[in-house]
UniProtKB/TrEMBL annotation, chain A:
GO cellular component, as recorded: ATP-binding cassette (ABC) transporter complex
Species for this entry: Cohaesibacter marisflavi
Gene3D superfamilies in UniProt: 2.40.50.100, P-loop containing nucleotide triphosphate hydrolases (3.40.50.300)
Superkingdom in the source lineage: Bacteria
Alphabetized UniProt keyword annotations: ATP-binding, Nucleotide-binding, Transport
UniProt xrefs under PROSITE patterns: ABC_TRANSPORTER_1, ABC_TRANSPORTER_2
The protein's name: Putative spermidine/putrescine transport system ATP-binding protein
Pfam families: ABC_tran, TOBE_2
Example GO BP: quaternary ammonium group transport
UniProtKB/TrEMBL annotation, chain B:
Pfam families: BPD_transp_1
InterPro entries: MetI-like, MetI-like_sf
Protein's recorded name: Putative spermidine/putrescine transport system permease protein
Family of this protein: Belongs to the binding-protein-dependent transport system permease family.
Localization terms from the record: Cell inner membrane; Cell membrane
Membrane topology label: Multi-pass membrane protein
GO cellular component: plasma membrane
GO biological process entries: transmembrane transport
ABC transmembrane type-1 domain span: 64-252
Domain of life of the source: Bacteria
């Protein structure tokens, strides 16, 4: 059974009078990579800084590798942090950067050299050992930062938006590399990012954060298909959220009314059990444009934009503006009347949120 | 070599500026070697006797030593306080109120004569401090704006996450400041210290209030001397002082590369 490497318990944190974390709970298993995903100001970086010890929580407890580290100062935490801007020491060579943590731990010079060489070998920078960081490319700097963090054998690796300064192509390469290194070393890791694709591709589990709380924590697969709230649904691409009210139940089939009067029939075999009121989250590819008005929402086509693989239409309906993608073979004129049908394969069912 | 054409007018303007800057220096050097009992330019004859006289006058020698002590002490105090202030101001920018940084520039805005008087009232009258520490403290405050400004400028683009990186790798935060932050802002620290040193060495107004019986700085002695005598000894002192300053600058330039720093 995998041990819990990191336990965050009821963490509350403030910046001055502003509360930025509202009782955060998170458990990370040994060897697992968990991402904290959210837009800026959601508390993901605060969580990381609490873990690193740069911030003190107002209340709550942090346990790493079975040890309560809540009150431990940052230099005693053995945190392997990869910073957003690499944070390499500009006046030290690559080898000195990588060996920095070992030197602090008073590892003798010969062993230090051996371990630094091994680390550099692993990230493919042996030939750059004696260069200064300024002489490296972005990707190389990132590798040095990674090697430096890994060199101290940290119980927990922390990544603070490590790829946001790289260009798109390199970003994809580097995240594969990070994932491989993390897995090969069996390191527990926490990864902060605002990039959904990055988080999903790299993580075992993703915690989606909003306003100082984890809204949903699950595997990327579940998050992508079964978000638990409107917030997460929008985050993972369910652009259309349509509230419905059940008017008739007939065995497995449920007929629901949409604002404006349109009636939609859903099969609970397909959607799972439905409450009397619920919200359908639909990706643009989950809405079909059709001339057939039955089991559909009527609307007016506003704008069409070309996406390469498909056309995207904005459609004005009584329940609000909806976005639908249609194949290139299916060209509709702007300004015309159209009916919208759901393809429940690309939809999710959400509870109604009162506010 | 590129043969770029220079407008004759800007050439003239350029030479005027050079002349204006260098003129007084040339005149001082000229008068210091003039073999006349009064200041004469162009020099009449050539002698080094005024330089001899400088070293024969105890007042000049002693006040020069005092000036150096005060400049050194004042710069050290200002450096420690200014470094801490500049660090705090850039590191905790977000958390500090905006007017906080302006406090350190107050000595810029207060007329020096007023500043000197208030120093007299506080340091000497109120706290009854001896003259030498008073001078050092007074000059430290006078120099603080330069230090905070110059070090602040080199910290402006500083990425404090490298200090955090060092701490996360096991270095004590204070040690991380010395071995990670300081080496990367070294040039700013040196530039600030040099400016402070020169400011202290040149100060007249503050020293006028703080010096007293038996303890005087070189500018004060020069001033006093000129009031009584009008021989070229003063020019000789000035030339020597310039030589010392240039010597210090050259030494720093050779060892640390000052021209890279002040640019």
């Amino acid at each position: 059974m995998a041990q819990n490497a990191v336990i965050l318990q009821d963490l509350v944190a403030h910046y001055g009078p502003t509360q930025v974390l509202h009782g955060l709970n998170l458990t990370i298993a040994e060897g697992e990579l968990v991402s904290l995903l959210g837009s800026s100001g959601c508390g993901k970086t605060t969580t990381l800084r609490l873990l690193a010890g740069f911030l003190q929580p107002t209340s709550g407890q942090i346990t790493v590798a079975g040890k309560d580290v809540t009150k431990l100062p940052p230099h005693k935490r053995d945190a392997g942090i990869v910073f957003q801007n690499y944070a390499l020491f500009p006046h030290l060579t690559v080898a000195e950067n990588v060996g920095f943590g070992l030197k602090q731990r008073k590892v003798a010079a010969p062993e230090r050299k051996a371990r630094v060489d091994a680390m550099l070998e692993r990230v493919g920078l042996v030939d750059y050992a004696n260069r200064l960081p300024a002489a490296l490319s972005g990707g190389q700097r990132q590798r040095v930062a990674l090697a430096r963090a890994l060199a101290i054998n940290p119980p927990l690796l922390m990544f603070d938006e490590p790829l946001s300064n790289l260009d798109a192509k390199l970003r994809v390469d580097m995240r594969v590399e990070i994932r491989e290194l993390q897995k090969a070393n069996g390191r527990t890791a926490i990864y902060v990012t605002h990039d959904q694709e990055e988080a999903f591709s790299i993580s075992d589990r993703v915690a989606i954060m909003n306003a100082g709380r984890i809204v949903q924590l699950d595997t990327p697969e579940v998050l992508y298909r079964r978000p638990n709230s409107a917030f997460v649904a929008r985050f993972v691409g369910f652009d259309n959220l349509i509230e419905m009210k059940v008017v008739k139940r007939e065995g497995d089939l449920v007929t629901a009314e949409v604002e404006g009067g349109a009636l939609i029939t859903l099969s609970q075999a397909e959607t799972g059990p439905l409450e009397d009121r619920f919200v359908v989250g639909a990706r643009p590819e989950g809405i079909e444009l059709t001339a057939d008005p039955s089991n559909a929402i009527a609307g007016k086509l506003l704008t069409r934009s070309y996406l390469g693989r498909s056309y995207q239409y904005k459609v004005d309906t009584p329940t609000g503006m909806l976005i639908a993608n249609a194949p290139l073979t299916q060209l509709h004129e702007e300004g015309g009347a159209i009916n919208l049908k759901f393809n429940f394969e690309h939809c999710c069912i959400l509870p109604v949120e009162e506010n | 070599m590129s043969a770029r054409k220079i407008n004759p007018l800007s050439k003239i303007a350029g030479w005027l500026v050079v002349f204006y800057l260098a003129g007084p220096i040339i005149i001082v050097i000229g008068t210091s070697v003039s073999d006349t009992p009064f200041l004469a330019f162009p020099p009449q004859g050539f002698t080094l006797k005024w330089y001899h006289k400088v070293f024969e006058l105890n007042n000049f020698v002693e006040s020069f030593i005092t000036s150096m002590e005060v400049a050194f002490g004042g710069t050290m105090i200002a450096l420690i306080a200014g470094l801490a202030a500049a660090y705090a101001l850039s590191r905790y920018k977000v958390r500090l109120p905006a007017w906080y940084g302006s406090i350190f520039f107050l000595p810029f805005f207060i007329p020096e004569i007023v500043f000197g008087f208030s120093m007299l009232k506080t340091l000497i009258v109120q706290f009854d401090l001896p003259i030498l520490p008073s001078l050092m403290l007074g000059h430290a405050i006078l120099c603080l704006p330069y230090i905070v400004r110059v070090i602040g400028a080199s910290l402006a683009g500083f990425d404090f996450s490298i200090q955090e990186a060092a701490v996360s790798l096991g270095m004590h935060p204070v040690k991380a400041f010395w071995s990670i932050v300081l080496p990367n802002i070294r040039s700013g620290v040196i530039a600030g210290a040099v400016l402070a040193f020169i400011t202290s060495l040149n100060d007249m107004a503050v020293a006028l209030f703080l010096t007293g019986p038996g303890v005087s700085t070189l500018p004060i002695e020069v001033f006093t001397y000129v009031q009584q005598f009008f021989d070229p000894t003063v020019s000789a002192v000035s030339v020597l002082l310039m030589a010392v300053t240039i010597g210090v600058m050259a030494l720093i330039e050779r060892s640390l590369g000052l021209s890279k720093t002040i640019k």
